[in-house]
Every structure is written in C-alpha cells, then in structure tokens.
Design brief:
The chain is mainly α and 391 residues long. It has 22 helices and two strands.
Length: 391
C-alpha cells in the first residue's frame, strides 16, 4: 500500500492544530477562573464545610465585586432562605425577576425560588400568584403541587379540586382520595349552613370520585337525618361497615340515637353488638359499653367488656371493666377498684391516642387530615395501643 506524499505533510499539521486548540482551551479556563472573585471560591469552600454564615459573607462580598453574576444571586438567596432570613431571600430573588438582562429560563428559575421564599414566610397569597405564573412552564409540577398545598391551607376547596383534577395520568388517580375529601369539606360547610341541595351535590361528587369514601357516607347520613329521613340515614351509616369497618365507631352513636328517635333502641343495641363482634376496636367497644351500661346496667356492661378482653386484652379495656365493676361493688370494694383505676390511668392516657399511619404523629382527637404531614385519612380511629398489640 502506497502512502501519498501529501499525507506526510498533513499529519504534523493536524497535530499542531490539536496542540494549539488545547492550549487555547486551557488558557480560557485559567482566564475565567482568575476572573472569578476570590470570595466566590471562598464561599464555595465554606458551603462544602457547612459553614453557612461565612459562606453568606463570602458570597455577599463576591456580589459587591461582581453584581452581574446570576449564579451568586441564586446561591445567596437559597442560603438566606435556609437560614430563615426570608426577607433577604425575597429581595434577592425579586431583583432577579425584575432584571432585563437575563434569559426567560433564568427568570422562571428566579420565580420558582421566589415562590419558595413566600411559602417559607407564610405569604400564601403572594406564593399563589407566583405559582399561577409558573403554570405551563418547566416548573409546572412544582407549581401545581404547591398550589394544592396552599389551597388546602387556605381551605379553598373548589380551587383545590380544580388543581387536583388537572393532574394527568397515574398522578391524577392517586389524588382521588384527596379530591373526595375536598368535596366532603365543601359538603360539611354547606350542611352547617343548611344548604341541603348543595351539600347533597358535593357528597355525590365525593362518592363518584371515591366509592369507598367513608366520610361521604357519614355526611350523607347526617344530611338525611337533618331532612327527617331517619331510616335512610341509618342505612347510609350502615354502609361504613362495607367501606372500612374501622370507622364504625364514628357512626355508632349516630346510629343508636337514630334508633332511639324511632323507638327502636333495642334493635340499635343489637346492631352495635353485632358490629363489635365482627369488628372489635377500642372506640367501638367504648360506644357499645356506654349504651349497654345505660340500657341494661353495669352487670351486662361488665360481661360485654370481659368478653372483649378475652379476645383482645388491652389496658383501655381493663379500665372499662373496672368502671363497670365499680358500679356493682360494695363501698369497700369500690375504694379498692378506684385505687387500681388511678394506678393504670396514667398509662391509659399515653396509649389512648390516635396515630398517623403516614408520619407517626399522635393526637388525642380524631382528625380527617394529619396536622403534621397533611395526609388525608391517615388517622384511622384506632388507639395507639391497638397498633402495639396487633400481630
């Protein structure tokens, strides 16, 4: 194979051009690094070492030397927000948004940071305005989820429904439980104001979104009862057992009062005992116990609790047993029983709390939405002791 003579001349030329290009790149890198303020490099070093106060001082000095460096503004604003100095973070990000010499991508990035500042500062109306501007941009997902949180905090349930319904695909399906609860909030407000037709519409929307929505069935029963349709109300509350029986304790008193109103107290008591037999929980046992001791006396209530304790031994159940025993004991025995009750009362107060399935936050009151993590229906009406003794 013969090699053309001109190739021998071209090879050294190619090597020379490559060496020259490499030298130019190296010089450019060195030139740019020297152009950076030394305080900028110091700030990066402080960040790596988690020295935020010194990093802020260094970045502030770098911005004084070179106020046109966009990255410095973002870094310093984020640092101020992390330190809780939201006013200073807001000023920095606002100045970025108002600048005319930045690209649209940089402006939307600055808007996203400004929205985070407003959220951290609790300025929800301003945060809402920012995130509405970010809808349809590359920060659309962030804007949508933060708008959902804002509307829930402000109890703007119709707006929350509108935003949640705009979620597409699998994510939209995941929000069905939350959307049903938004409608339940609307129904609850309408029911409190005696706007029965509006309440019925929202309840139906909640059930259409989530057929297993226990809260909607409870509200439907409340609405029917307010309209004087007592038998229908009972039937609505009875659906809870098929939806999620752990919530039966929330309707037990409603069902019993409705039966009493119809003059069918014994039938209501039989229904509650059947619920307790099939779905034993401490709250439901407490409801049945109170009606049992009122209608059939302490002896019947004592036998009821003793049977439940054999199935599911709990300290809270023991306290109910002692209460029933105290009412049928002699004065001397009653003193001893009260002493034992006092000894276990401190322990029962600790285990008689509801616990969030999502974050573990505990509360004495049942709530549809966790005040800590914001999860809906993460607070089943089961006491924390029941979780501890469950297999």
């Amino acid at each position: 194979m013969e090699i053309e003579f001109w190739w021998l001349l071209a090879l050294p030329l190619f090597f020379g051009l490559g060496w020259l290009a490499a030298r130019i790149d190296i010089r450019q890198v060195v030139r740019e690094s020297r152009a950076l303020p030394r305080s900028y490099l110091n700030g990066l070093n402080f960040l790596v070492n988690e020295q935020q106060d010194k990093a802020i001082d260094a970045f502030s000095e770098a911005m004084r030397i070179d106020p046109n460096t966009i990255e410095l503004h973002f870094a310093l604003g984020a640092l101020f927000r992390r330190r809780g100095e939201t006013e200073r973070a807001i000023r920095i990000h606002q100045s970025l948004v108002e600048r005319e010499d930045i690209s649209e991508d940089q402006r939307t990035d600055a808007l996203a940071e400004l929205g985070e500042d407003y959220l951290r500062a609790g300025l929800l109306d301003r945060a809402e305005a920012v995130y509405l501007r970010l809808r349809g941009t590359r920060h659309n997902d962030l804007a949508t989820h933060n708008l959902l949180e804002i509307y829930q905090q402000e109890k703007e349930w119709l707006k929350a429904v509108e935003i949640a319904r705009s979620l597409s695909g699998h994510e939209g399906v995941r929000w069905r439980k939350e959307i049903a609860n938004f409608y339940c909030e609307l129904a609850d407000n309408a029911l409190a104001a005696s706007r029965h037709d509006e309440a019925r519409t929202h309840i139906e929307e909640a059930l259409q979104m989530n057929r297993g929505c226990v809260r909607a069935s409870i509200l439907l029963g409340d609405l029917l009862l307010a309209q004087g349709r007592v038998d229908e109300a009972i039937e609505a509350w009875k659906r809870v057992e098929n939806q999620d029986p752990v919530y039966l304790s929330l309707v037990a008193e409603r069902v019993m009062n409705a039966h009493e109103r119809l003059g069918r107290g014994e039938q209501g008591q039989v229904l509650l005992r059947a619920w307790l037999e099939r779905n034993p929980t401490l709250d439901l046992m407490d409801q049945v116990f109170r009606w049992e001791i009122q209608r059939n006396g302490p002896r019947a209530a004592y036998e009821l609790v003793r049977t439940q304790l054999r199935r599911n031994p709990t300290v809270l159940g023991l306290e109910k047993l002692l209460e029933a025993a105290s009412q049928q004991a002699t004065p001397e025995q009653r003193d001893d029983i009260e002493l034992v009750k006092q000894l276990i009362h401190g322990h029962t107060r600790r285990v008689a709390r509801y616990r969030c399935d999502g974050c573990g936050f505990k509360s004495r009151q049942f709530q549809w939405r966790c005040p800590a993590c914001g999860g809906w229906e993460t607070y089943p009406p089961r006491r924390s002791e029941e979780f501890d003794v469950s297999p």
